[in-house]
Amino acid sequence: MESSSKALHSLVSTGTQWSGPDAERFRSQWQGQSSKQLAAAVDALNRAAEVLKKNADQQEQASSASEGTRPGTTGAKAPSGAAGLFEHIQNGDKTDDGFRIEKVVGPDGQTRLIVYFKGQDTTRGRGLPRSIGLATGVIGLDPVAQRALDAALADSPNGKRTEVMMVGLSQGGMDAQNFAASGKYNVTTLVTYGSPIIQTDDPNIQTVHIQAVGDPVPAAGEAAEIGANALKGKYSIPVVGPILYTADMVENMAPANTFSFDPHDGVGMQVHARDYPAAAHAFDNSADAQFDDVKQSMKKFEGTEAVIVN
């Protein structure tokens, strides 16, 4: 409602597409009454959402008190492989900002951080305007996630030298790529699922982009990125040879893919919504040697337990 109201206000205020007495009456009513009513409705919905979220958070705290999923407490276990990382994107606290940070003590005794970015969310903190801003590069690095990561690093034994793994689903994968490409953090590993590839893979960062055959989101997002760059005077996206693992959930075309045709897989957005748990397992089961290095890098973040710090 808020986005539509702003768009309509912009059109109404220009006065170039509709003129005459009827147009003036409409503008007067819009500015004096209608826009204010919409603003009041948006405010009421936001306040109601805050109440609902508070109630839901209290219920989750009561339900998960014994599971250790609150910030500053231990998780059940550290993630293992691409499938385990995918589960951790979705599990745990549901924050308004669509990301979470885990601290893991690896098998070598070193403390490392895993930053998870969810896909586009509809929570108040990360609604459509903010999502579009992040996706098109208008906002750049998510400032909320950046502050949280800086705080987590300040509390880690190695400070800014702490190794970080970025993990993202869909648009969250775009956020993860932007953080990895920024050079601000010691990112050693990058894993995305169903994400448009908008940055050139850094040879110093062990990377894999997991995509399911038939998922329209990666190509659509990359096309949108090309359009956004064109508006900024750029006419291509800096992508050269991405490290891509493609999981065919419909036909058993890849030797390492043990999944066969499933009539319930669906097409289009159903693939994007349903197939990534299976695609992650397919990657873990893959014997393709080109992914050995990234898998070894992921193992350093397994450890024995994860502590949620955000």
Short recap of the structure:
This protein has 10 helices and 7 strands. It has helices at about 1-15, 20-65, 80-90, 130-135, 145-155, 170-180, 215-230, 270-275, 275-285, 290-300, and strands at about 100-105, 110-115, 165-170, 185-195, 205-210, 245, 305-310.
Strand coverage percent = 5-15%
Number of discrete domains = 2
Run of helices and strands: HHHEEHHEHEEHEHHHE
Poorly predicted runs: 64-69, 251-265
User: Looking at the chains present, what oligomeric state does this protein adopt?
Assistant: single chain
Which structural class do the helices and strands define? alpha/beta
Q: Helical residue percent?
A: 40-55%
| Dominant shape | elongated
Averaged pLDDT, please? 77
The radius of gyration over CA amounts to 22 Å
Can you count the beta strands? 7
The main pleated sheet reads as: 7 strands, mixed
Give the count of helical stretches: 10
The end-to-end distance, rounded to whole angstroms, is 30 Å
Which sequence of strands runs across the widest sheet? 6-5-4-3-2-1-7
Report on the structure:
The protein is α/β, with parallel strands linked by helices and 310 residues long. The protein folds into two domains: 1-65; 68-308, no CATH class. The chain is 45% helix and 13% strand. The chain has helices at 2-14, 21-64, 81-90, 128-135, 143-154, 171-182, 217-231, 269-274, 276-285, 292-299, and strands at residues 99-105, 111-117, 164-169, 187-193, 206-212, 244-247, 306-308. The chain has a seven-stranded mixed beta sheet, sandwiched between helices. Helix 1 packs antiparallel against helix 2 and helix 3 packs antiparallel against helix 9 (276-285). The longest helix is centred in the N-terminal third of the chain and has 44 residues, at 21-64. The chain is elongated, with a radius of gyration of 22 Å. Mean pLDDT is 77; it is low at 64-69 and 251-265.
